[in-house]
Amino acid sequence: MILGIDPKVDIVFKKVYGSDSSTDLTVSLINAVLETFAAHRVVEVELLNPYSEKMALDDKLSILDIKARDLAGWLFNVEMQMLAVAALAPRLLYYWAKVYSQQLSAGDDYTGLRPTISICFVNGVLFSERAEYHTCFRLLDPTGAVCLTGDLVMHVLEIPKFNKTLAELETPLDFWLYFLKNGEQMDADALPTELDREPGVRKAMGILKMFTQNDMERELYEGRLKAKRDMQTLESQRRMLEAERRTLEVQRDHWQQQYDVANRERETANRERETANHRAEQINREREQAHREVKRQLAERIRLCQRLLRCPLSPSDELLGSNAEELREQAERLERELTEGIGSS
User: Fold this and answer.
1) What is the DSSP letter of 312?
2) In whole angstroms, what is the distance from residue 82 CA to residue 69 CA?
């Protein structure tokens, strides 16, 4: 029978891996994640916030993570996120810090702190530049050779990137990821042979089957689905608004560049116009100076002719007040009279 219950919905995820009756599945899931990246192996865990059917029906947005402590005192925070929201990365760090810091009471020293491991399954893609579905974060120096402390470890598993077929499943993590990704469509009474050989997967499917038969849990599941759809709608709207904001920023930058170019061109044109005006003023001054020099020379010619003709001398100011053409005509007339007088003598 196809149950139609998605184990990626956080309340189902917590029911499967965060119940007191299924700590063996909690241990199996944690060890499956740690297997590739750490020698530490969990034998037994104590659930610090076990699943309870008495969770409020109206608490649709509460954080249903799984907090556990193993025999060595290591702390684990395991959660399922249905949406790859933008704030997920800082949120993971914030919740890791809360779990880590809550280890100490007043008067305790820092040597009592134990490693805290965050494990986040995400039904979305956070790191599009990476093909790998499992990413482990630690406090390393830029070379990757020095680790500040092993107390901080974060695992992020992007479920959509996991595409192995049943025939390709090898590691325990492969089987759990396949269950999480495809559990909603699997038949609880007729599991494929590859999965039926895994006792953990068989037990998890049995828990899903019991989940469908509990009215309260089914109602909680529907409430979480509705909350997820609402959040998905809000996230889609946020992404659309973000895309529109980026588009507007690009347009704003384009028009700012155009405005800056126009300003530079206007400033260049203003400078060229000012240069042209200065040059025109200089030419006018030179022309006026040349005009005055011509009139001065003509005035001297007139006064020289008047001396030679023994005529009364015209005042220089009076001559310079006349226009050049009048002065030229007067000078030429006096020069003719002087020439004629010399010729007749």
Assistant:
1) P
2) 25
258 three-class SS: helix
The answer for residues whose C-beta is within 8 angstroms of residue 327's C-beta and 6 or more apart is 295, 298, 299, 302, 319
How many CB atoms within 10 Å of residue 87?
A: 8
Structural Rg of the chain based on CA atoms: 47
Measure the CA–CA gap between 169 and 157, rounded to whole angstroms.
Answer: 16
CA angle 22, 23, 24 (to 5 degrees): 85
Length of the chain: 345
List alpha helices for the chain, DSSP H. 10-17, 23-34, 88-101, 172-182, 193-196, 199-212, 215-308, 316-320, 324-344
Q: How far is CA 194 from CA 5, 165, 199, 274, 297, in A?
A: 21, 10, 11, 86, 119
Q: Which of 120, 55, 118 is nearest to 81 (CA)?
A: 120
Q: What is the distance in angstroms between the CA of the first residue and the CA of the last residue of the chain?
A: 148
Q: What is the pTM of this model?
A: 0.68
In this structure, what are the phi and psi dihedrals at residue 18, rounded to the nearest 5 degrees? -120, 25
Q: What is the C-alpha to C-alpha distance for residues 233 and 231, in angstroms, rounded to an integer? A: 5
Please state, in angstroms and rounded to a whole number, the distance separating the CA atoms of residues 323 and 18.
111
Backbone angles phi, psi at 253, to 5 degrees: -65, -40
Q: Which of 89, 91, 66, 92 is nearest to 77 (CA)?
A: 66
Residue 98, Cβ density class (10 Å: 0-12 exposed, 13-18 middle, ≥19 buried): exposed
One digit per residue, pLDDT tens: the chain, 345 residues? 787 899 999 889 999 999 999 999 999 999 999 986 777 899 999 999 888 766 544 454 456 789 999 999 999 999 999 887 778 889 999 999 999 999 988 778 888 899 999 999 999 999 989 999 999 999 999 998 999 999 999 999 999 999 999 999 999 999 999 999 999 999 888 898 999 889 999 999 999 988 888 877 777 787 777 777 777 677 777 778 888 888 889 899 989 999 999 999 999 999 999 999 999 999 999 999 999 999 899 989 888 888 888 888 888 888 888 888 988 998 898 888 888 877 665
